[in-house]
Amino acid sequence: MQGYVDCHCHISAGDFDKDVEEVIENSKKAGLLALLAVAEHAGEFNKIIELSQRFSGFVFPCLGVHPVQEVPPHQQRGAAPQDLDAAIPVIEKYKDELVAIGEVGLDFTPRFVSSESDKENQRQVLIRQAQIAKELDLPLNVHSRSAGRPTIHLLKEQGVEKALLHAFDGKPSVAMEGVKAGYFFSIPPSIIRSEQQKLVKQLPLENICLETDSPALGPEKQVRNEPINIRISAEYISTIKGVSLETVMEVTTQNALRLFPKLKSAIRP
Ligand SMILES: [Zn+2]
């Protein structure tokens, strides 16, 4: 199995509108086997489905409501239950195509939450989507920022068994509670400039996946990230773990297949 899986990227972002074809071609040349395209709000669901049809067998759709919602033109706020109204019917409509529900989660960055009720709103949005994922037998693709512990605790309380914690910024000890629950953690290229290096050291390779979060979380701040940078995550993990790049590729791709079994159509052993 020669190749990588980008378990979390935003290929529907406006940043890729002009050259998405080229970005996808370059990803394939760089050894990617599949991309998981995650959503942030109902407004981009159709675009993600279209991309997954256009790049069928390579771009795999995940639909979900992110804990931070855009308020055009340039503001952001925490998610609230009414944000699910437009989302749920589209999730239902495409349930057979989806490989996961996401991007969902909790983000307690102070500028997005100013009160306990803001946090509670985000929790309710996550709980509802965890229920939907369970009903549809789909894994969750999860964001957590300044909320590592509450996110993992909520997932466990809700009986979530299949989850990917993307770009986890919590303590390694909290991440290890997730490992015990069977969760996976995906490492973005920004790891080379982050303070989460201890996390990679502690996580067993059997619980690690790769992601880019493109166009965000690249190796360089403010520069558009692309799926080809998945190799930077893999190389970093290989160095920290003292195993070959081959091994990182093999194991993380196996992990992705275990968590997202619908990828089997794209990846043959
Ligand atoms: Zn993301």
From TrEMBL:
Supply the alphabetized keyword list.
Hydrolase, Metal-binding
Q: Indicate which residues the UniProt annotation says bind a divalent metal cation 1.
A: 8, 10, 103, 213
Organism superkingdom: Eukaryota
Residues reported in the UniProt entry to bind a divalent metal cation 2: 143, 166
Q: Name one Pfam family in it.
A: TatD_DNase
Homology family: Belongs to the metallo-dependent hydrolases superfamily. TatD-type hydrolase family.
Q: What is the recorded function of this protein according to its Swiss-Prot or TrEMBL entry? A: Exhibits 3'-exonuclease activities and apurinic/apyrimidinic (AP) endonuclease (in vitro). Show preferential AP endonuclease activity on double-stranded DNA substrates and 3'- exonuclease activity on single-stranded DNA.
This chain's protein is named TatD DNase domain containing 3
